[in-house]
Amino acid sequence: MSRPQIALITGASRGLGRNTALQLAAQGVDLILTYRSQRQDAESLLAEVQKLGRRAVILPLEVGDSDSFPAFAAEVSQQLKEVWGVERFDFLVNNAGVGAHQSIAETTPAQFDELMRVHLKGPFFLTQALLPLMNDGGRIVNLSSGLTRFALPGYGAYAAMKGGIEVLTRYLAKELGPRGIAANVVAPGAIETDFGGGVVRDVAEVNQFIAGQTALGRVGLPDDIGPVIASLLAPAGRWINAQRIEASGGMFL
C-alpha cells in the first residue's frame, strides 16, 4: 500500500482554506489543517474530512507570529510521526490572511506591519521552518490576489504584500528546484467569503459592481478557487512551476 500524500494548509477553518481542504481530501490527500481562533470551525472541517475517508489533524497557528514557527514545526513533526508514521509531508498551501481597506494616505504603520507579518513575513519564515519537513518532489502554493494586476483604491498596502509573495514564489521555485519542489501562486479575484468582513458577499452594491466588471458576470465563490489549488497539487500539475494563476472569472479585462 502506497504512502498517502499529506498537505498542510494554513487558515483552513473557513473560506478558501476550507474549500481547498475538502477538494484535496476528495482527491485522496491527508491533511494538516491550521486555524487561528476558530477552533469550532476547524473541528467541523476535521469531521468532514474524516467522512471523506482521509486522516487529518488540526493545529493552532498565528501566521503573524514568526517567533512561534520553530515550536509549530516541532509539533508538525510530532504529528507526522504519531498519526502517519512518517517524517515529512508533501504539499504546503500558504492561505491564511487578513483583509484591510485603507487608502495609502491613511494607512498607519501598525496596519502596514500587521499586513506584512501575516501576508509576507509569515509565509516566508513559515515556509523556511517547514522546508526540512517537506518531501523532495513536493509542491508549494501561495495565495495572492487579483489586486496585484489591477488597482482598486484602498488596497495599496495589502496588494503590495501580495506582490511580494508573487516574487518570493518565483525565488522559491528557483532555489527549491534541485529538490524537485515546485512553487506557484494562485491569485483569486473577489470571492464571497468572510474575508474583509464579508463585504464582497454581504454588500449588494459591491457584489453587483464586481459582477458587472467580471467577464463571466458574477462574483467568485470558494468552489471556484479550491479546485484550482487542488489541481496544482494533483499529478497532472507536476510540470507547472513559478507561475501566477489568476482565478477571477476575468475581472477588469
Write up this protein.
The protein has 8 helices and 7 strands. The chain has 253 residues and is an alpha/beta fold. The chain has a single domain, classed as Rossmann fold, CATH 3.40.50. Strand 5 (134-143), helix 5 (156-176) and strand 6 (182-188) form a beta-alpha-beta unit. Helix 1 packs across helix 8 (222-233) and helix 4 (109-130) packs parallel to helix 5. The N and C termini lie far apart (48 Å).
How much helicity do the residues have?
Answer: 40-55%
Which CATH class applies here? Alpha Beta
Compute the CA-based radius of gyration.
Answer: 17 Å
Oligomeric state: single chain
What sequence of helices (H) and strands (E) makes up the elements? EHEHEHEHEHEHHHE
Q: Main sheet?
A: 7 strands, parallel
List the helices and strands and how they pair.
Elements: E1 6-9, H1 15-26, E2 30-35, H2 39-51, E3 56-60, H3 69-84, E4 89-94, H4 109-130, E5 134-143, H5 156-176, E6 182-188, H6 199-202, H7 204-212, H8 222-233, E7 244-247
Helix pairs in contact: 1-8, 4-5
